[in-house]
Amino acid sequence: MRAGVSEMHAEKGVGAGCCPSGSGGERQGANRRNSQELRRFGAIHRSIYDELKALKKCDLLHVMDLLIRLVLFGGAIGAVALMVSERRRVTTGSDARPLEGNTKAFVWITCLLSPVLSGIIYYYGWKGRLPIMAKQANRITFIAIIPWIVGFFLLFLLPGIQEGLSTAG
Questions:
Q1: Distance between CA atoms of 25 and 90, rounded to whole angstroms?
Q2: Angle between helices 101-113 and 57-89 (to 10 degrees)
Q3: Which of 8, 45, 110, 111 has the fewest CB atoms in 10 Å of its CB?
Q4: CB-based contact 82:97 (threshold 8 Å)
């Protein structure tokens, strides 16, 4: 059908833009392009999947290490941003207001992402001007360390213990 459209153009002596947008030749060309793009996407998806399957355990540990570092760094950056913005709100002396609303939620999020760094940033950044907020952030930090300890135990120590038990018995 595509050849028929080209012949029609040649006979009439007009360019390719003379047919209406819904004509069969253009529609087939668009469908052909879409199917080629889908095949290309499928090939890319399959190649990524094959590469992920081929990764060794060592490579996965490197990727996990990179992700953990990014999370820790992101949590610390967020903590610095919040600490500075809250500190700027207090102009003179110290403020005795507690953590509330969005500020408290953001402290929880950053402490869950990076408990040690965020806790240090919040406590030492706020203890002079915002002592109540500093103490609350410090408590949140100690609570947020618990999931990291449990996660470390489950990811690194438990498989080693299980492997040791299976070789001993």
A1: 69
A2: 150
A3: 45
A4: no
Residue of 103, 93, 109 whose CA lies nearest to 133: 103
CA 121 to CA 141: how far, in whole Å? Answer: 11
pTM, two decimals, is 0.57
Spatial separation of the C-alpha atoms in residues 42 and 29, rounded to whole Å: 20
CA–CA separation, 107 and 33 (whole Å): 50
- CA separation for the pair 93, 137 (Å, rounded): 20
Question: What integer is the mean pLDDT of 100-110?
Answer: 93
Residue bearing the bigger pLDDT, 52 or 76: 76
| Chain centroid, CA 50 distance in Å | 22
* Higher per-residue confidence, 82 vs 21: 82
Phi first, then psi, for residue 91 (nearest 5°) are: -90, -45
d(CA 28, CA 5): 11
| The pair of three-digit structure tokens given for residue 149, joined into one six-digit string | 């300890």
**What are the structure tokens assigned to 154, written together?**
């489950």
Q: What residue segments make up the domains of the chain, in order of their start? A: 2-54, 57-168
